Amino acid sequence: MKSIAVITGASSGIGKEFVCQLSNNKDIDEIWIIARNKNRLQELITLVNKDIKVLALDLTIQDELEKYKIELEKEKPNIKILVNCAGFGKFDHEENIDTNVKLNMIDLNVKAVISMTDYSLPYMEDGSNIINVSSNSAFQPVPYINVYSASKSFLLSYSRALNIELKYRKIKVLAVCPFWTKTNFFDRAINQNNEKVVIDYVVMYEAKDVVKKALRDLYHSNKDMSVYGFKNNFQRILVNILPHNAVMKVWMMQQKLNGTPKIRE
Fold first, then answer.
1. What is the 3-state secondary structure (H, E, C) of the chain?
2. What percentage of the chain has pLDDT greater than the value 90?
3. 124, 76 contact by CB (below 8 A)
4. Global pTM?
5. Are the beta carbons of 196 and 264 closer than 8 angstroms?
């Protein structure tokens, strides 16, 4: 039986870095990489020393998710690790973001993760793993990023609870909660006028460091959550202590936002 890794959002950023680092795992025979952009996925074939299976799928569409399920039924692999990394955010005032865009965020950040997990579990054995890429924004409500942060809060809670539920099968679930990380994420996060909503980044981490820490926490710790970076951990602790109203007020002041559909004061 072929042992595989399955990675969504694999065409760039953190997902791509998971492909690169997991390609060194000797227990994995093949990596299934999933994203919408087939050309970008195919470029990865030349970058890693591992057999690659390209699945160009839009995970916001249920019929596309079903194609993954059908592929599993045909191949019947042993999934050693599933990395749910696909996701996107749109930063703007609630009234400025189209409803379909917000629902699309939920489709990809939440519904796709549940579908990928449920479809994959029948093909996982003792010792298999699931990584769900959440966000630092999962720790508190974030105005102007409200749907994105709420979806990541769901993902964090879902992952930690799922980790308990799957212990009887010796399957570990790890939620990875990156802070601001250098990826293409921000190309899509800008507002409808192609303007930045977030103007003050506390720190900007490298994807390779986030992934390295995540895999170390997965294989060498009992943690159900991976949080890379001192400032990331400091903020996580701080927002658990301070009232969230105060946290949101500081965020609004930091980003020079005033709570109206007009982005800037």
1. CCEEEEEECCCCHHHHHHHHHHCCCCCCCEEEEEECCHHHHHHHHHCCCCEEEEEECCCCCHHHHHHHHHHHHHHCCEEEEEEECCCCCCCCCHHHCCHHHHHHHHHHHHHHHHHHHHHHHHHCCCCCEEEEECCHHHHCCCCCCHHHHHHHHHHHHHHHHHHHHCHHHCCEEEEECCCCECCCHHHHHCCCCCCCCCCCCCCCECHHHHHHHHHHHHHHCCCCEECCCHHHHHHHHHHHHCCHHHHHHHHHHHCCCCCCCCCCC
2. 85
3. no
4. 0.93
5. no
